[in-house]
Amino acid sequence: MKLITRDADYAIRAVCFIAKQGTNKVSVEELVREMKMPRPFLRKVLQILNKSKILKSYKGQGGGFTLALSPDKISLLGLIEVFQGKLKLNECTFKKQVCPNMRLCRVKKKVDSIQKFVVSELQGITVASLLKEGM
Amino acid sequence: MKLITRDADYAIRAVCFIAKQGTNKVSVEELVREMKMPRPFLRKVLQILNKSKILKSYKGQGGGFTLALSPDKISLLGLIEVFQGKLKLNECTFKKQVCPNMRLCRVKKKVDSIQKFVVSELQGITVASLLKEGM
DNA sequence: GACAAATGACACAAGGAGAGTATCATATTA
DNA sequence: TAATATGATACTCTCCTTGTGTCATTTGTC
């Protein structure tokens, strides 16, 4: 059970690195050298981050990526959800057909509260806060 | 991201039902009728619960399953870990080769603390507590 | 003892998700 | 216009989830 999948993990590291470079564009080449990730996979990750408007991309010679948002506006939760969809620990594997008492289900209620905690924790961690402590 | 996989979910419901029947043996037939789970899959789930000494099985005519432990000794965490292995949210997808600063990694630290919370919450929910509130 | 009724032990299979690759199209700028 | 970036997209490979199916073994009843 992974809370953070590989692509999300790559994304976190890449975004932190890009954030550190400020307004300087960072190319895929640079990231590959620096972080030793598989090039094609990283490219896909960056493209997704671009589409979801967390990064801004520049094509052509001298192109690359910069942040599209300020580092304190990018949370771990946000990055995770870009790749894994909305964080849901509480989805019942049985839909209505099997489990008629969804509202009363104590298991679901407990998992709901766990989920709330996890979401709020992940929301509180921003790229800015990660950089501050020297990642 | 599922916290509780399907087999663990089946297990929780089956164990609760069996617990309600006290010392009476419960057969697969009965469980299938009652809970509408696929028969062969449920059989597998029950066999696993038997092997991990949460249930006790009785072969032959009139056989079935009873609890091997008292309901307050069976936690949600225990049931989940039988099927999904030790609950670990905090395993870094990068081992040492890529991520040299495992100890300093703030992401890992945060996830560690989230994991501790989740584990302790799930440990606190027992079959006894589920039954008390009328599952 | 024979038979029926239960569980035990496996081996197999379909489907999807995670992780990664490969190729061509498009934009930029020197 | 050629070189250098990213964009779009389709494909592969493997493992995990969610099952199914078959035969063996045990046990209670007639």
What number of structural domains do the residues of chain A give? 1
Strand content of chain A: 5-15%
CATH superfamily of chain A: Winged helix-like DNA-binding domain superfamily/Winged helix DNA-binding domain
Count up the helices of chain A: 6
Largest interface: A-B, 41 and 42 residues
Largest sheet, spatial ordering of strands of chain A:
1-2
**Oligomeric state of the chains present here:** homodimer
- Overall morphology of chain A: elongated
Can you describe what's shown?
With 135 residues, chain A is mainly α. The first copy, chain A, has a single domain (6-132), classed as Winged helix-like DNA-binding domain superfamily/Winged helix DNA-binding domain (Arc Repressor Mutant, subunit A). Chain A is built from 6 helices and 2 strands, in the order αααββααα. Chain A has a two-stranded antiparallel sheet with strand order 1-2. In chain A, helix 1 (6-20) crosses helix 3 (39-51) and helix 1 (6-20) crosses helix 4 (76-84). The model of chain A has no long low-confidence stretch (mean pLDDT 91). The structure holds a DNA duplex (30 and 30 nucleotides).
